[in-house]
Amino acid sequence: QEGSDDENMVDNFVTFFVAGHETTANLLSFTIMELARHPEIVTKLQAEVDEVIGVKRDVAYEDLRKLKYLSQVLKEILRLYPPVAGVMRWTEKKNVIEGIDIPANTTLFFSTYLMGRMERYFKNALTFDPDRFSKDKSRPYFSYFPFSLGPRSCIGQLFAQVSKIIALRMSTPILVFVPFKREVENLRMLLIHSFSL
Fold first, then answer.
1. Euclidean distance between the first and the last CA atom of the chain, given in angstroms as a whole number
2. Measured between alpha carbons, how far is 77 from 39 in angstroms, rounded to an integer?
């Protein structure tokens, strides 16, 4: 019994830290891409960070909870670019969902990627719009589940959310986003020149 507890602890550690860091890195990459495309969102984000955090060197957990717009940006990134494409579930008994018979012992796949891009659930689904996650907007149930749902949801959900907010918050003062389309060629030439030195 004791050995299995140690094994379970190691499995949770690997899941929590290794998987959490990879998915967080992917999410931050997509966040930087979208922010580079939307300088008006960066301006709004920077204003919130300046107001809530200012020049504080240490960020308290209470401060993170006040970064509402940053949270909306991250939720919208998770909707469009979920780090995990979907989740699988197994039915123990027969079910009928919206008139569709699902036999017992069936494996079901729920795609977070597809659900987040469906017009049925999200108006202008392919548009990056953090305001769709503002407090006053309603969302249909069970259409947004980047960390899965229920008792088998992601063990590292809170860690992932906090680490993303901290990483973005720490980056915001030093990131300068250039307009995406206009500067790509100059950036490519700069990189070619840098590597040729």
1. 60
2. 15
Candidate ranges 71-80, 81-90, 121-130; pick with highest mean pLDDT: 121-130
Domain count, the chain: 1
33 annotated ligand binder: no
67 contacts: CB under 8 Å, gap ≥ 6: 48, 49, 52, 53, 165, 169
How far is it, in rounded angstroms, from Cα 48 to Cα 34? 18
Question: In the numeric block, which tokens belong to residue 29?
Answer: 């990459």
pLDDT digits (tens, 9 = 90+) for 108-163: 888 889 989 999 999 999 999 999 999 888 877 778 777 666 665 655 555 555 56
What is the domain range of residue 49? 5-171
Longest dimension (CA), the chain: 66
Domain annotation covers residue 146: yes
73, amino acid identity: V
Mean pLDDT (the chain, rounded): 76
- Count of all residues that appear for the chain in the document: 197
- pLDDT greater at residue 144 or residue 179: 144
Q: Is the pLDDT of residue 55 over 80?
A: no
